[in-house]
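wait is this the right file?? whatever heres the structure
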């Protein structure tokens, strides 16, 4: 991480407000509307980052959407305390029939958040998550949703475990990479970053969680 020129440390929600600001400043050529969040391994805090980032975006924008793209180990329905009976996988199966999106997307009111947050959970378990996320259906769905929402956050699977994330990162405007300073080995993190770079993903920044002498809800945001 020594190559990064700047590091910011903030406590709790202030960290996510700063993260949001830096994402917006990264929009040099075109606005950044779709961001995917991933990590090397499980339990590094990527879903927590996705959840709180959605809160700070919803404080500014009326239409914020969170999509749980981790079709194998979904968590967003737990964070938002909603049903996961139907979601992304179900929507992709029936997308050609032009289904009513309100059947799949839930509106959630979060404490201390002025605007409701739209959530598309992972949905039914499927045997082929990679095929669904790499399909033209998913790409077209994301393009359509980006016209309806001000900002979209994609909670993706860990990179070192499966390759689903690379399909998602290639159709998003950028990637936020989450690293647990307590749990993640440096070589694994660097390998994951190189994989993202080889897949031509635009890495917007790195969020470090569980830093020494800080609680697990304090974050660093770094960028080159």
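ok assuming it is, sequence goes like this
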């Amino acid at each position: 991480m020594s190559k990064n020129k700047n590091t910011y440390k903030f406590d709790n929600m202030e960290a996510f407000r700063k993260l949001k600001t830096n994402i917006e400043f990264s929009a040099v050529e075109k606005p950044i509307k779709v961001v995917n969040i991933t990590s090397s391994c499980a339990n590094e805090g990527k879903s927590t980052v996705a959840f709180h980032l959605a809160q700070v975006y919803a404080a500014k924008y009326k239409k914020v959407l969170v999509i749980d793209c981790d079709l194998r180990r979904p968590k967003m329905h737990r964070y938002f305390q909603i049903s996961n009976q139907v979601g992304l996988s179900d929507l992709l199966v029936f997308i050609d029939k032009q289904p009513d999106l309100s059947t799949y997307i839930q509106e959630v009111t979060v404490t201390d958040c002025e605007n409701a947050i739209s959530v598309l959970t992972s949905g039914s378990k499927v045997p082929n998550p990679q095929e669904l996320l790499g399909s033209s259906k998913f790409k077209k769905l994301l393009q359509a949703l980006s016209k309806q929402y001000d900002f979209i956050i994609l909670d993706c699977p860990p990179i070192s475990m499966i390759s689903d994330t690379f399909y998602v990162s290639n159709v998003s405007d950028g990637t936020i990479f989450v690293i647990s300073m307590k749990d993640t080995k440096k070589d694994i993190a660097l390998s994951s970053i190189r994989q993202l770079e080889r897949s031509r993903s635009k890495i917007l920044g790195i969020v470090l969680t569980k830093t020494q002498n800080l609680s697990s809800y304090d974050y660093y945001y770094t960028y080159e």
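The chain is about 35% helix and 20% strand. so i think its the right one actually
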